[in-house]
Specification:
Length: 119
Amino acid sequence: MSVSDWQSFIAETDSRMARLRTGIPGVAKGFAETARAAIGAGALDSKTKELIALAIGITARCDGCLAYHAKAAAKYGASREEVLETIAVAVYMGGGPSMIYGAEALAAFDAFAPSAPTG
């Protein structure tokens, strides 16, 4: 799947996830707590952890992961250069499919980063 509007994609996914959380509230609560604990600053800062999550999203070929973790990486101040290096590591580990999803990840980051290039 190729996403052309990452902002709308997140809005649609948020809506779907809200419906899912209603159906599995205990699991959803546990997952949210796991996410908070995993991304919270520790030995690694939150930005680094979001870049790791972005790389995993690339190698797992998960559009939702790309959207949410690209947005979070931008929120935590990741630079485009840091995202590009993250993509490079994902390509090293995941080959050609990661190259395709790396391009998607960069598009997602560019959609959320305040000073990213357009186009």
